[in-house]
């Protein structure tokens, strides 16, 4: 099984034998990889019934829940890492979800498309809603409720007391950009954050 580039990068940030909660897990491919290749245990959470079924067929433990409303079902400290990959922009209550994630595990991994990308800004200047590899939907059929820049997201992390241990900027094709990469809010297509809560 070949993982999407950003999911492979996320998998590299998760220590072997970790307990992982994957919120918005889709078809469960990340958890399947972590279970099979990293000796992890875990649970996926997904609201789309077709994706839940795909995860179950792949042998991934998954629960059909609403991330915005149902995270109180998970006990405090019950996981080592909570992953929220390309999902925060679809949530009604991202601040509350991040707070719950910090309660459930001491380590959080969040990936997000960057609405502040220069190409997106130029599309807006031309009077069009941005579309790209990271934001592939038309304005009228998008699952995205929130559009954030990396700067805005980092402000939210700080407000919630989450510490950014690492930010990995991703190119428009989903590949990691070098450590010397500058102007990420303008030039990165997306980012993966590794967070901790003191």
TrEMBL record:
Signal peptide: none annotated. SUPFAM superfamilies: S-adenosyl-L-methionine-dependent methyltransferases. Pfam families: MetW. InterPro entries: Methionine_synth_MetW, SAM-dependent_MTases_sf. It comes from the Bacteria. NCBIfam families: metW. This is Methionine biosynthesis protein MetW. It comes from Micropruina glycogenica.
């Amino acid at each position: 099984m070949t993982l999407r580039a950003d999911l492979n990068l996320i998998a590299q940030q998760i220590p072997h034998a970790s307990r992982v909660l994957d919120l918005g897990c889709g078809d469960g491919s990340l958890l399947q990889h972590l279970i099979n290749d990293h000796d992890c245990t875990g649970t996926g959470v997904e609201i789309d019934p077709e994706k839940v079924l795909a995860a179950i067929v792949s042998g991934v433990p998954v629960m059909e829940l609403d991330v915005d409303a149902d995270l109180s079902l998970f006990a405090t400290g019950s996981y080592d890492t909570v992953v929220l990959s390309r999902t925060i922009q679809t949530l009604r209550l991202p601040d509350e979800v991040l707070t719950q994630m910090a309660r459930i595990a001491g380590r959080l991994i969040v990936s997000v498309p960057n609405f502040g990308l220069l190409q997106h800004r130029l599309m807006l200047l031309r009077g069009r809603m941005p579309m790209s590899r990271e934001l592939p939907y038309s304005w009228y059929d998008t699952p995205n409720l929130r559009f954030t820049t990396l700067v805005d997201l980092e402000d939210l992390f700080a407000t919630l007391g989450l510490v950014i241990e690492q930010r990995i900027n991703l190119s428009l094709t989903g590949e990691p950009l070098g450590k010397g990469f500058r102007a990420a809010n303008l030039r990165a297509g997306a980012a993966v954050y590794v967070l901790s809560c003191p």
